[in-house]
Design a protein that fits this description.
single chain, alpha/beta, 11 helices, globular
Length: 299
């Protein structure tokens, strides 16, 4: 139904002037971000068939998920207790799910569910995409039974860090990406979305640089302009190591916490994990943001 709704909305927008647009951006967050991945080429084809000359691009926010490595029961009665793969398999059967043709042709019958994962689908798409993704996505972690404010074992902490590295690797070949090393979910819907930075560049600036790259390509200037990056992935390894990360909020108390405070509340020995208590405890979210601003401005 999602694909059908998008197709009908595009039809409704034709008499309202969408065909006169120069650039049409299909954007979505979380499951909606996955929806952008699944539908962008179909939307581009639909508009082209209607005579529109607009360039269709996609903005995928927090919809780039990985398969779970946890051993969960395949007979899960509710999707919340399913692995992402099993939930998608059930959904495809129940709702007659639609995946892009080029991706579907890459897999044998019954394996089409793999096209819901961005790192498997991306190479088959022809429309330009900008992927916005926290490296430690809370929804991805929830599937792995890791919930901020609950309990956490050292094994889970190691698993969490490895998950961040896997996500980073999965984004390596994505042309346009903004991936801060933070624990959160969804970015463009946050009121302070313009404040987050990766390597000193904000998301609005990265999107501007991405747009500029298309303009330069049209003028036969293929090299990207210096100082205007749009492939931005944090290189620091730990969650919340980016000083512009959104503050962590304990679900039970609704109090803001640093990563160290959160880990202590979740029952971990931070010294065993390699943290330096005095230095790491002192880094409050507000102070971190201030230091990041000063660093970005050269202060």
């Amino acid at each position: 139904m999602g694909s059908l709704i998008i197709r009908e909305v595009i039809k409704d927008l034709i008499p309202k002037g969408i065909k006169q647009g120069k650039v049409i951006m299909l954007a979505g967050t979380s499951a909606g971000g996955t929806g952008v991945l699944l539908n962008i080429d179909r939307v581009a084809g639909q508009l082209e068939a209607m005579g529109a000359e607009a360039h269709v691009r996609g903005l995928v926010d927090s919809g780039w998920f990985l398969e779970s490595h946890q051993q969960l029961a395949t007979t899960c009665p509710e999707t919340i207790s399913c692995s992402p793969e099993d939930a998608i398999k059930k959904g495809l059967r129940m709702w007659n799910g639609v995946v892009p043709d080029r991706c579907r042709q890459s897999y044998k019958r019954g394996e089409e569910w793999q096209c819901f994962f961005g790192h498997k689908l991306y190479a088959t798409l022809t429309s330009p995409l900008f992927v916005v993704q926290w490296l430690f996505d809370e929804e991805q972690l929830r599937v792995e039974n890791i919930v901020l404010g609950g309990s956490l074992s050292e094994v889970q902490w190691t698993y969490l860090q490895n998950l961040g590295r896997e996500l980073k690797n999965s984004l390596r070949d994505v042309t346009a990406v903004f991936a801060p090393s933070c624990l959160s979910h969804t970015l463009i819907t946050k009121s302070n979305w313009i404040n987050f930075q990766v390597k000193g560049t904000s998301l609005p600036r990265a999107l501007q640089c991405w747009d500029r790259s298309f303009q330069d390509a049209n003028r036969n200037r293929t090299p990207p302009p210096r100082g205007c990056p749009f492939h931005l992935v944090d290189t620091c390894q730990r969650p919340q190591c980016n000083p512009t990360c959104p503050a962590l909020v304990h679900r039970a108390t609704q109090q803001e916490m640093t990563l160290v405070q959160m880990l202590v509340a979740m029952g971990l020995d931070i010294q065993r994990l390699g943290f330096e208590p005095r230095r790491d405890q002192a880094a409050s979210p507000a102070g971190a943001s201030a230091s990041a601003s000063a660093s970005a401005s050269g202060g």
